[in-house]
Amino acid sequence: ASERGGRPKVVATIFPQYDFARAIGGDRIELSMLLKPGMDSHSYSPSPQDIINIQNCDLFIYIGGENDHWVEKILDSFDEGKGPKTLKLIDSVSAVEEELAEGMQEEDHGHGHDHGHAHEDGAEEDGHEHEAEYDEHIWTSPRNAEKMAAAIKEALASVDPENSSFYEENARAYAAELEKLDEDFRRTTDGGGRRLLVFGDRFPFRYLTDEYGLKYAAAFPGCSAESEASAATVAYLIDKVRKENVPVVFHIEMSDEKTADAICRETGAKKMLLHSCHNLSREEIEEGATYVALMRKNLENLKEALN
Amino acid sequence: MDLIAEMLSYKFLVRAATVGLMVSLCAALLGVSLVLKRYSMIGDGLSHVGFGALAAAVATGASPLGLSIPVVIVAAVLLMRLTDGSGIKGDAAIGLISTSSLAAGVTAISLSSGINTDVCNYMFGSILAMSKGDVRLSVATSAAVLLLFLLCYNRIFAVTFDENFARATGVNAGRYNMVIAALTGVTIAVGMRLMGALLISGLIIFPAVTSMRLFKSFRGVVLSSAAVSLSSYLAGLVLSYAAGLPAGASIVLVNLVFFLAFAAAGRIR
Amino acid sequence: MDLIAEMLSYKFLVRAATVGLMVSLCAALLGVSLVLKRYSMIGDGLSHVGFGALAAAVATGASPLGLSIPVVIVAAVLLMRLTDGSGIKGDAAIGLISTSSLAAGVTAISLSSGINTDVCNYMFGSILAMSKGDVRLSVATSAAVLLLFLLCYNRIFAVTFDENFARATGVNAGRYNMVIAALTGVTIAVGMRLMGALLISGLIIFPAVTSMRLFKSFRGVVLSSAAVSLSSYLAGLVLSYAAGLPAGASIVLVNLVFFLAFAAAGRIR
Amino acid sequence: MAALVCRGLCAAYGGREALHGVDFELPAGAFLAVVGPNGSGKSTLIKALLGLIKPSAGTVKLEEGVGRSGIGYMPQQSESRGDFPATVYETVISGRLGRLGLRPFYGRQDRREAEKNLRLMGLWELRTRAFRELSGGQRQRTLLARALCAADGMLVLDEPAAGLDAETQERMYSLLRDVNKKEGATVVMVTHDLVRGAAAATHVLELDGGQKYFGEAGLWPGRAQYGSGEK
Amino acid sequence: MAALVCRGLCAAYGGREALHGVDFELPAGAFLAVVGPNGSGKSTLIKALLGLIKPSAGTVKLEEGVGRSGIGYMPQQSESRGDFPATVYETVISGRLGRLGLRPFYGRQDRREAEKNLRLMGLWELRTRAFRELSGGQRQRTLLARALCAADGMLVLDEPAAGLDAETQERMYSLLRDVNKKEGATVVMVTHDLVRGAAAATHVLELDGGQKYFGEAGLWPGRAQYGSGEK
Ligand SMILES: Nc1ncnc2c1ncn2[C@@H]1O[C@H](COP(=O)(O)OP(=O)(O)OP(=O)(O)O)[C@@H](O)[C@H]1O
Ligand SMILES: Nc1ncnc2c1ncn2[C@@H]1O[C@H](COP(=O)(O)OP(=O)(O)OP(=O)(O)O)[C@@H](O)[C@H]1O
Ligand SMILES: [Mg+2]
Ligand SMILES: [Mg+2]
Ligand SMILES: [Zn+2]
C-alpha cells in the first residue's frame, strides 16, 4: 500500500499515460484522469477539486510539453515536501528520440513544423536545436510508449513497493503487446511501396513518422499552434496528392476536418482518421477504447494509405 | 498574371475567392454602421457566444451547428436590445455577453463530460476549405444581406445617425435596428463558420475605420469600405499564395496596410 | 463556515484568494474609467496582443514572458494614444490593435518553425496555480496600482468626464491618460498571466456596468464596483470549491448574477 | 379642427414626475410657443408629443391628417455625433425619410426640397462639409433645415434659436411665420426668447412642472412682463 | 497690464483656415464680448486661447499672474455624456481641479466654493442628481457653476446663455458683472445676444473669419445696430 495507506492514488493528465497506468496498475491503484472525456486540453482549467486531487495523490503523471504549463505552475505552488511524487514523461523519451534520429536517413526525416510544408529532403534546418520546444506528442510512436510504460512501472513500484512484482508482471505483458504493435507497424511500413502520408490537418505524429521512416506533408504544424493554412500550403498538398496519386488524406480526431475535405474534394482522395490519442470522446471511453486498440485502427488506415 | 491564372486553376481558391468576396462585402457594408454604433468587437464577442452555444448543444445533445448559428443571430439581436435605452453602450454589452457565454460554456463543459470543443476553433476558420454547400449557403445569404442593406440604406443611415429623429418622423427605428442586428448576426454567423472570428472581426472593423480617415460623407465611407474590403481580400489571398502565409492573417495584414496608407493620406490633407 | 475553514486549510486557495482580491479590486476600480471611455473589451484585445508578442518572442528567441508583459503595457498606452484626437473610438482601436496583433502573431508562427503557442493559453489562466513569486509580484503591483488610483482619483474623474475642460484648467490631461493606460496595462498584464483574459475581462466590465445600474455618482459607482468585485470574487471561489466548477468561470457567473440583481433593482426604483 | 390634443398628460423619469396634468387642445394652423424655466418639462412634453417617451398618465392625439411622417422635429440637444461621417446634405435630406414610404431611395422631389432648405438656412456653401466639422450654430442650422425638410403639416422645434447668430435667428423666425401662415403648418416651438420667440406665436403654453397657462398669446399674462421688450 | 495678448493668430482645421490674423491686447479686468455670425471662428479662438488647439500661426500669451489653473472655462457643446455617472456636485467641484496642486483630495475650501456656486446657479436642490438626468438648461447651469469654481482671475465662456431661461440669464449676466467688477476677474464671453450680452461688456471683438473689430464696447459700430434694443 501507499505511504498514506490504502491503494496508491494516481492522477494522469491525459489519455495515453492514463491508459498505460491502467494496464500496469490494474485494480491495485486508484487511477483518475484530469481531462474529462472529450475535453480539449486547451480549454482546460483546473477546478479547486482537481488541484486538491493532485496535491493528495501519490503519483502524478504528465507529459511536460507546452500544453502542460499549468501543471508546472500548480506543482510550483505546492509547498516544499507537500504534493505528490511526479513523473514527467517527456524526460523518459528525449534521449531515445535523438538516438533514433541518428539511425535515420536524413531525407526521410521531415520537419513539418514550419510553413506547413513537408521538406522531403535536406531538412537540415533547426529541428534538432529546438530541444526546449520538443514536440510533446511522444506517445504516437509505440517505441516511445514502451519507454513511457517502463517509466510508469518504475514510478508505481517506488510509491507502492509492496506490489512491485505485480506491476512488473503487468508491465512485461504490456511491453510485449506494444512490441507486437511496433512489429506490425514496421511490417506495414516496410512492406508498402509508398512512404508519404498527407495530412489535411494538424500534425502530431512526428514521432511515429520518425520511427518508421515515413515522409509526411501536413497543413499545420504541431498540435497546439492553432493557425490556418496558407493558400500555398493547400495548393501544395493538392499538387502532392495529385502527383503522387496519394489514395488517402488523413485528419486527426476532434478536428473540423475541413481542410482534409477540401483536398479530398479537389483530388478525389479518401479521407481517413489517424487518431493521435490525446484524449477520447465519451463514446470512445464507454466502448472501452485503449491506446493499443486505437493504434491498431490507425495501422489499418495506414495500410490503406501506403498501398 | 501567370500567378493569377495558376491560382484560378485550383477550384478551392476560386471558391474561397467567391465566398470571401461576398462575405467581406457584407462585412464591410455593415461594418460602417457597427463601428459607428460602437459594436466594433462584435465579431470577437459573438465568437465566444458561438463557443458557449456549442458547449451547451453538446451538453444537451442538440446538433452543434443547428444550435450555434441561430444562437449567434439571436445574440446579435439581444445585444442591440440590451443597449436600447438602458445606457449600456455597445462595447460594454458585447463584453457582458461574451464573457458570460464563455463562462457558461466552460462551466457546461466541466459539468457534462464528453465535449470536444475548443474556443480556438472559432478564432480561426478554414477560409480555403469550403464545400459546394458552403459556397451556396454563403452566396445566398450574402446576396440577401446585400439586397436588404441596399434597400434599407437610407433608413440605416437615419437610424444610425439620429435614432430619435428617425423615430419622431414615424420611422419604426426599432424595426430597422432589428434589421441591422439580424443582417449582422447572419453575416457573422456564416462568416465565422467559414472564415473564423479573427478574419470576420478584421473585415468588419478595418474597412470602415480606414475609410473614415479620408471620407466625410456616409456614402463615401460606405463605398470606400466596400472597395477597400474587396481589394484587401483579393490582395491578401494572392499574398497568401505567393508568400505561403496563412490566408486570414494575410488579409488582415493587407487591411492594416490600407489603414496606414489612408491614415497617412488623411494627415497630409 | 466549515466549508470556509476547510478552504482556508489549503494554501493554494489562500493564495488565490489573496492575489485574486487584490487584482480584482484594481480591475474594478480601473474598470469604471475603462467602461466609460469605451475600452470595455481591452482585456480581450490585449490578450491577443500578448499572443502576438509571445509568437514574436519565440520567433526571435527572446524570453516569452519578458517580452509579452512590457508589450502588453505598451499596447495599452498606444491604444490610448491612438484614440487621442484621431476620431477613432476606443472599441474600434482595440479591434484594430487586437486583430492586427493576432494576424502578426499567426504570421510569425508560420514563418518561424516549430512554435507551440496558443491564443487560448491566454484566455484561461490558472488562477489556482500561483507560486510564491506570483503572489509577491501581484500583491506589489496591485498595491501600487491602488495607491496611484487613490492619489489620482479626482484627476481621473475629471479627465474621464471632460478632457477638454481638464486641459483648459491646466491639468496635464495627456499625463493622466497615460497614468490610466499604464495602470490598466500593468493590471491586465499581471492579471492575464495569473487569471487569464476571460476572468480579467469580466472583472473589468461587470462591476462597473453592474454598479451603474444603481448608482448615479462617480464615487458611488467606484465604491460599489469595488464591493461587487470583491464579493463576487470570494463567492465565486467558494462556489467553485463547493460545486467543483472552474474557478474563473464561477467568478464570472457570480458577477452575472450581481448584474442581473442590480439591473432588476434599478428597474424597480 | 384640433391639430393636437393633450388630455391629463403626465410624464415621469424613473418614478420622479417631470410633467403633471397638461391638458390643452391646439387648433390646426396655430403657432404654439412653449415657455417655462429650465427643468419645467418643456422638452419632456415635446418628447411625449412625438411618442419618444411614454406618458405615465393621460393621452396625446395628433390630428388625423398629419401622420407621424409629416412631423418635422428638431431636438434640443442632438446627441454629439463626434465621429459620424455625414455631410450636411446627407443630414438634411434624411429629413425626407418619413416621406419615402416604400421607395428605397430619395427621388428628385426629395432632393429639390433638401436643396431649397439648405439655401434657406444659408448652408448651400457648406453642403459637402462633414457635420462633425461644423460650428455649433452651423449644426443647429443643419438640424433646422432637416426639420423643415420633414415638415408636412407640423413642425416641432425644441429651442431652435439657441446658438444661432442674430441674423439667422431673424431669418428663422420669419421663415417659421411663413411656414405657419402661408403653408398652414402647425408649429410647436420651445423657446426662452420671450421677446421675439413668443411674439411670433399665436398661442402660448407655460409650464412649470404642471401647466401654468394655455391660451392665445395675446392674453398670456407673461406677455405683459416680457413681451414689450427687455425686462 | 494685459491679461491676454494675441499676435497674428491664425487657426486651421485640416488645411482649411477658420481664423485669420487676430491681433489684440486685452487689459486685465476687462470684460470682452466675442461676437460674430455662426462659423466665424469664435469657438476656434477660445480653444486657441486655452491651448486646446494649436494655432497655425501667431501667438497667444496669458498674463503671468493667471496660470492655466486659474481659468474657468465653459465649453459651447459639452460632449454629450449620455451615460456618465456623475452628480451635479461632483461635476461642479471638479472645477477646483486646477487648484489641487499636489494635494490628492479636495479640501474644505474647495467644498465651500462648490457649494457657493451651486447656490448661485440655483442648483442646490439638484446637487445629488445625476448630470445625465438634467434638462438642457440645467446642464448649462452646471457647467457654468463649474467654470465659476475654476475661475481665479479669468473666466472664458462660450455662449453661456444659450439654453438658459430668461431669469437665469439675467442672474448670470449680473453675476458675471460682479465677478468682473468686484473680484476683478477678466471675462471673455462668446455671445449671440447683442442686446444683453454685449451690453455687459467693456470690450468687443467682432470676428468673421478674420478680425473685424476690436476695441471698447462703447465705440463698437455694431452697438448702434443692435445695442439699443431689438432690430
Ligand atoms: N473640428 C472641425 N473640423 C473642421 N472644421 C471645423 C471644425 N470645427 C469648426 N470648424 C469650422 O471652422 C469654422 C469656425 O468654427 P467655430 O466653431 O470657431 O465657429 P463659431 O464662431 O464658434 O460659430 P458658432 O456661432 O456657430 O458657434 C467653421 O466654418 C467651422 O465649420
Ligand atoms: N433622462 C432623464 N432622467 C431623469 N430625469 C430627467 C431626464 N431628463 C430630464 N429630467 C428631469 O425632468 C425635468 C424636466 O426636464 P426637461 O428636459 O423636460 O426640462 P426643460 O423644460 O426642457 O428644461 P430646459 O429649458 O433646461 O431645456 C427636469 O427636472 C430634469 O432634471
Ligand atoms: Mg429642454
Ligand atoms: Mg462656437
Ligand atoms: Zn497536442
TrEMBL record, chains B, C:
<keyword id="KW-0472">Membrane</keyword>
<feature type="transmembrane region" description="Helical">
    <location>
        <begin position="12"/>
        <end position="36"/>
    </location>
</feature>
<feature type="transmembrane region" description="Helical">
    <location>
        <begin position="176"/>
        <end position="209"/>
    </location>
</feature>
<dbReference type="GO" id="GO:0010043">
    <property type="term" value="P:response to zinc ion"/>
</dbReference>
<keyword id="KW-1133">Transmembrane helix</keyword>
<dbReference type="InterPro" id="IPR037294">
    <property type="entry name" value="ABC_BtuC-like"/>
</dbReference>
<feature type="transmembrane region" description="Helical">
    <location>
        <begin position="135"/>
        <end position="156"/>
    </location>
</feature>
<feature type="transmembrane region" description="Helical">
    <location>
        <begin position="48"/>
        <end position="80"/>
    </location>
</feature>
<dbReference type="InterPro" id="IPR001626">
    <property type="entry name" value="ABC_TroCD"/>
</dbReference>
<feature type="transmembrane region" description="Helical">
    <location>
        <begin position="249"/>
        <end position="268"/>
    </location>
</feature>
<protein>
    <submittedName>
        <fullName>ABC transporter</fullName>
    </submittedName>
</protein>
<feature type="transmembrane region" description="Helical">
    <location>
        <begin position="92"/>
        <end position="115"/>
    </location>
</feature>
<dbReference type="GO" id="GO:0043190">
    <property type="term" value="C:ATP-binding cassette (ABC) transporter complex"/>
</dbReference>
<comment type="similarity">
    <text>Belongs to the ABC-3 integral membrane protein family.</text>
</comment>
<dbReference type="Pfam" id="PF00950">
    <property type="entry name" value="ABC-3"/>
</dbReference>
<keyword id="KW-0812">Transmembrane</keyword>
<dbReference type="GO" id="GO:0055085">
    <property type="term" value="P:transmembrane transport"/>
</dbReference>
<keyword id="KW-0813">Transport</keyword>
UniProtKB/TrEMBL annotation, chains D, E:
<dbReference type="InterPro" id="IPR003439">
    <property type="entry name" value="ABC_transporter-like_ATP-bd"/>
</dbReference>
<dbReference type="InterPro" id="IPR027417">
    <property type="entry name" value="P-loop_NTPase"/>
</dbReference>
<keyword id="KW-0067">ATP-binding</keyword>
<protein>
    <submittedName>
        <fullName>ABC transporter</fullName>
    </submittedName>
</protein>
<dbReference type="InterPro" id="IPR003593">
    <property type="entry name" value="AAA+_ATPase"/>
</dbReference>
<dbReference type="Pfam" id="PF00005">
    <property type="entry name" value="ABC_tran"/>
</dbReference>
<dbReference type="GO" id="GO:0005524">
    <property type="term" value="F:ATP binding"/>
</dbReference>
<keyword id="KW-0813">Transport</keyword>
<dbReference type="GO" id="GO:0016887">
    <property type="term" value="F:ATP hydrolysis activity"/>
</dbReference>
<keyword id="KW-0547">Nucleotide-binding</keyword>
<feature type="domain" description="ABC transporter">
    <location>
        <begin position="4"/>
        <end position="226"/>
    </location>
</feature>
<dbReference type="InterPro" id="IPR050153">
    <property type="entry name" value="Metal_Ion_Import_ABC"/>
</dbReference>
